[in-house]
Amino acid sequence: xxxxxxxxxxxxxxxxxxxxxxxxxxxxxxxxxxxxxxxxxxxxxxxxxxxxxxxxxxxxxxxxxxxxxxxxxxxxxxxxxxxxxxxxxxxxxxxxxxxxxxxxxxxxxxxxxxxxxxxxxxxxxxxxxxxxxxxxxxxxxxxxxxxxxxxxxxxxxxxxxxxxxxxxxxxxxxxxxxxxxxxxxxxxxxxxxxxxxxxxxxxxxxxxxxxxxxxxxxxxxxxxxxxxxxxxxxxxxxxxxxxxxxxxxxxxxxxxxxxxxxxxxxxxxxxxxxxxxxxxxxxxxxxxxxxxxxxxxxxxxxxxxxxxxxxxxxxxxxxxxxxxxxxxxxxxxxxxxxxxxxxxxxxxxxxxxxxxxxxxxxxxxxxxxxxxxxxxxxxxxxxxx
Length: 385
Fold this sequence. Notes:
Blueprint: H1 2-13, E1 26-28, H2 29-32, H3 48-60, E2 68-72, H4 83-94, E3 99-101, H5 107-115, E4 119-120, E5 141-146, E6 152-156, H6 171-176, E7 179-182, E8 217-219, E9 222-224, E10 233-237, E11 241-248, E12 251-259, E13 264-267, E14 276-277, H7 284-289, E15 295-299, E16 305-309, E17 315-318, E18 329-331, E19 336-339, E20 344-348, E21 351-355, H8 376-379
Parallel strand pairs: 1-2, 1-4, 2-3, 4-5, 13-14
Antiparallel strand pairs: 5-6, 7-10, 8-9, 11-12, 11-21, 13-15, 15-16, 16-19, 17-18, 17-20, 20-21
């Protein structure tokens, strides 16, 4: 059973991010782990984060939805969690997958405002309303509650109905995310410089790329490290990024980021790290047609997004997303083309890649769950007869 719980935590880990370009919601882990009514289990369980992530995927009708998780440092010593859970959360923090802060204060709401994201919470944020009046906007605060059949659902604390349009980042958020920041603590996971490259443990450390740095905290008007509280140094302009989505048969399966620093290869099973693998979502015919590495996406310093065919069978471009086959453009091996804002890349019929803003909804009714390996007995209380 412990092994199965570990597999659930591994599945949850794949949905954690502090990358501003990918996160779809912000959560306070110390709140989520105590939603005992969702599973009737022990007082605190980190597995409940998986239940809430699944609920977010259903709410957005999209697969593989990443969340930005923040936790107060005290959670790492909370004895209501198992020693294994505390160890895993500490590893997530050390790897930069979650943000751990000395005291939570309003950091969750600060991140939500800077990045234009909803907060998954059962609170109404009354204590922050004076500084953050947007908490009263429909869809900004979403509460996870037990739904029919037991699967948790998200409901808006204000308003009802379909998911609200994702709000814009705040002006402060745009300014902060235009720069690279550096913490004086060289081993800082989020804003560190990597420390001494000659250190015997240098290759074992995890540091966040400048492309995906989280937003700094603002303390007394100064950009500061949320973990260490130190003033951050402005280390220059942040690399430009473009967020793309893979849409297969009308379903958004995955989002990914292309930056001016690193091109991204999309295909059936790209070799090396950093590629986007589609094989698990493809039909047998599509797997035969789409190469292991099929198309490479690059972002030019001027902001132009380019696709290069690196496949055996060619890559299609549908200008403006047009379904008309007469307008389809085919790129052959090593040919490149700069993409217009609404162009869609077609790897195979129904297998498309485009800018994420093109598709407002994921279009999937039954999203892929992170709780597939969750053992029922591990979540439920043991009842004596």
